[in-house]
Write a structure and sequence with these properties.
single chain, 239 residues, alpha/beta, Rossmann fold, globular
Length: 239
């Protein structure tokens, strides 16, 4: 898995939805400061396969689903589905699946994979905030793989509002987030495109909205290196 694509030079300091300027002076846990220029996620796909698109199901996510904590066949939303690996896995396990991503090229890949596997699910090309405003649907299970750890740095309250709108009492929320136990240098942060967060921060932030089911050490895979990165596997329930 060494044929990953590095972050394009012009985007090494610009990280978000709308582009977020990231300060890499703190190698332990860089902080995003402010919106900058518009950010085009499709640029990563135009140049090849982005580092986060491994084509592999994340083991920690699979473990949570196989634990049967999440009600079977329930309505499910994936925020930032990318090329659809987890969404297709969920569909194969008969969850009522909606997968959303703002990258047209990632969505195209997800739809191709779904057709190849003869799977039927709702795959939506849209900004997640616009999607939520338009659909107003609530889900039994909402999850993201590596979205919370980006969005929290500048739009945490907006993300809280989104999660509250798409969940209901009894709903579950799962996130897999990069761990600040990784000893990243500033160049690592730019190259791996993997923000990190501490366990205490996760507890204080998401624990203010949900009941904590578990926050445990895990891993998150990348094409950037053979070994997975350290991560936090986090499951919550809305009271």
């Amino acid at each position: 898995m060494n044929d990953y694509i590095k972050v394009p030079e012009e985007f090494k300091i610009e990280l978000t939805l709308e582009g977020l300027e990231i300060n890499t002076t703190n190698s332990k846990e860089p902080s995003i400061l402010k919106p900058s220029k518009e950010f085009d996620w499709d640029d990563f796909y135009r140049q090849g396969t982005p580092p986060w698109d491994t084509g592999l199901l994340e083991p920690d996510f699979k473990s949570v689903i196989n634990s049967n904590i999440i009600p079977p066949h329930c309505s499910t939303l994936e925020i930032g589905c990318g090329s659809g690996i987890e969404a297709l896995f969920m569909t194969q396990h008969r969850f009522e699946m909606t997968a959303v991503d703002c990258s047209a090229m990632a969505i195209d890949r997800a739809r191709i994979r779904a057709r190849e596997k003869n799977l039927f699910l709702r795959i939506v090309h849209e900004d997640i905030f616009k999607f939520v405003n338009q659909s107003r649907q609530k889900f039994d299970f909402v999850y993201d793989i590596g979205f919370y750890h980006f969005i929290r740095r500048s739009f945490l309250q907006q993300y809280f509002n989104l999660l509250w709108r798409v969940t209901k009492p009894g709903s579950y929320y799962y996130t897999l987030a990069g761990s600040n136990e990784e000893e990243f240098t500033p160049e690592d942060v730019r190259q791996y495109f993997l923000p990190t967060v501490g366990q205490e921060d996760i507890f204080n932030e998401l624990g203010a909205l949900f009941e904590v089911v578990e926050i445990r050490p895990g891993t998150i895979y990348s094409r950037a290196r053979k070994e997975p990165f350290k991560a936090w596997s986090c499951l919550f329930r809305r009271p």
